[in-house]
Amino acid sequence: MPHDFVTNLYVFVLAGFVGFEVIRRVSPLLHTPLMSLTNALDAIVVVAAIVIAGRHETKLAVILGAVAVAASFSNVVGGFLITDRMLRMFKLSRSRKQ
Amino acid sequence: MIPLGTSQLIDFAYIVAIALFILALKWLSSPATARRGVLSGEIGVGLAIVTTFFNPGLVQYKWIILALAIGAAVGIPLGLVHMTAVPQRTALSHSCGALSAALIGIAEYYMSLPRVSRFEMTEIALEVIIGSLTFTGSLIAAGKLQEILPQRPITYRGQNFVSLSVLGAAVVIGVSLVLNPNNTHLFPAMVIVALIFGVLLVTPIGGADMPTVISLLNSYAGFSAALLGFVLNLKVLVVAGALDGSSGFILSVIMCKAMNRSFTNVLFGAFGAVQVSKAKGEEERTVRTASPEEAAAILGAANTVLIVPGYGMAVAQAQHKVRELYDALTRRGVDVKFAIHPVAGRMPGHMNVLLAEADIPYDKLLEMESANSELPQTDVALIIGANDVTNPAARDEQGSPIYGMPIIEVDKARTVMVIKRSMSPGFAGIDNNLYYLDKTFMLFGDAKSFVNDILRELSGGSSA
Question: Would the N or C end of chain B have less CB density within 10 A of its end CB?
């Protein structure tokens, strides 16, 4: 079994536990923003896509990489934008203008 | 293995990004700090993208820049959709994320040929299968939510057998690729079969199950990104994927519990299929109805009112009228709160967003448990566009298809009022005994115009 795999598995298990503990505490009130935010964070895949497209090794890799860059970057932009729009709407009764 | 992130500086930036991601999720625990969480996530992703540009392996920037521009051009409108369209936007973004992960896995396979070890092939095959099926599955889910595709579950005889055979075929092709990674002609076949499986997986699932399906696809998209991190030995992806995957998983479990169903039941049960359970001893039961005038009088005389909104309220675009009702009653000194069932809406937490958009303060939104503890002391429970989640049969009738599903126990309030178009049953296709109780008044009509009529009565019956 490759050495890298074992290290990555450590990271995966630890991150999974951290994620579970942190996300368990997110109020059900915010479950929709939670999903759009994790979606935007997950779009960090864009860094791998940039490298694949930018190394210019084969034509296929450039095409697949560029499509992947566009797809994941749309999640970065759209995900953060909509999450912030949603969160801006949550107000307490005393802070409502009236 | 590609020498991604060889320079320590890039690695260091990625570690900072990971820390910012975890902080982002931590700050999301409360609405007061949540926007800080978004900022933290933005800085993390931004930092990671900028430092990646310094990767020494990059030789060509023009396609990257063009692709980033296209991504932004697609992402901005998707970030500006109406709040009722957030579920389909989310499904679409799961599919974009999965597409991206799958494409990178495919590119990695062809670039690593002919020196792909069996171990790497296993990782790539798994990653590409999950990414591909999540891509098409999420597209179908988005199509159903956007109502381009029929909401009703599409089923046929032997469906589960067909779907599982297709999945089996993908696994068999994957295994033969692992045994001989240079068998290049099998690779496209594996991708195509996985894409087909994604379609077959989601097509039979009905609209009522969409909250669970979206959460499940969320976790698949996360795990495909984590697997990609294994393939590329890129820990920032392993962490982000694990966070996204566990988030989706937690939400799926919450949604399943809220409907008292198992994953297998959601995926293979085709809930909400045309269950013709009618016409068995259909004795004519009578319901009591009330006019807007009577409803206004009851609401105005109450001390405490609990409103139970369902997706029907959003369909009728009634949330802003409901906010006006909230304001009018609050001005009269009535204590008005909202009870939110976990599956109200089309995705987890959707109803909260719709009510927040209508400017209803979030401290008035109660989770199911706290709503149930307040209901016995509540004067009026007003149900707008919700049905199955208020059906006492889920608690009382062992034979009912929804038996065991947690409900908002509105029948414990002193008076119950239900705004509804007609007596037609909800998603589960079953009758709601609540409507026949002595304490229940049916308010027949469109949610928006009925609430408007109540408002007019409350303001003195004069002008519109």
Answer: C
